[in-house]
Amino acid sequence: MNDLKIYISCFLVQDIEFIIASDECGVIYLANEHTHEYVNRHIERFFSQATKVTGYEADQYNTHYIEELNLYFAGKKQQLEWPLNLAGTDFQKSVWQTLLTIPYGETRSYSDIALQSGNVKAVRAVGGAIGANPVMIVVPCHRVIGKDGTLTGFSGGLDLKDKLLNIEKIQL
Asked: What domain of life is recorded for the organism (predicted)?
C-alpha cells in the first residue's frame, strides 16, 4: 500500500490563479493559469503512485505556502525558502539548483546560467531546462533574461514575468 499523498490547491494571488502541489518532502509544483494543465502530467510522470488530495485538506496543508506567496506579491517577503521536492532529469535539476543562487532583485542571462552550471556550450539545453522548471517563482526562472537585457520567454507568460521583476524592483 502506498501512503504518498500529494496535496493540490488552486488559489488566487492578486487576481492571478495559481496551482500548488506538495507532499511531505516539500513543494513539487507551482504554476499560474498558463501552465495549470501540466500539473497532472508532472505528477503522473514523477509521482504516479501518489494519491492526489484536493479541497479543504489540501488547502490546509498548503496554507503556509499560499500565505508566503501572498506576502511575496505584496513586497513583504523576499525569500520563499520552501522545502522543495524537485523531480526532473539530473541536468534539469542542476540548472534549477543554479537558478536558486540568483539573489532577489538580480538577473542573469541564459548564457550566464549555462556558464555557472558548467554547460557553457549548452545554452539552448539550459533554456529548455529553465522552461521545464516545475516550481516557478521559488526556483526563480523569472530572473533569467536575454543576453541583451530584454524580457524573454517565461512559462507563466511575459506579463507575469514583468510583474515579478517589478516586485523585485528590477528594471530592464
From this structure: Bacteria
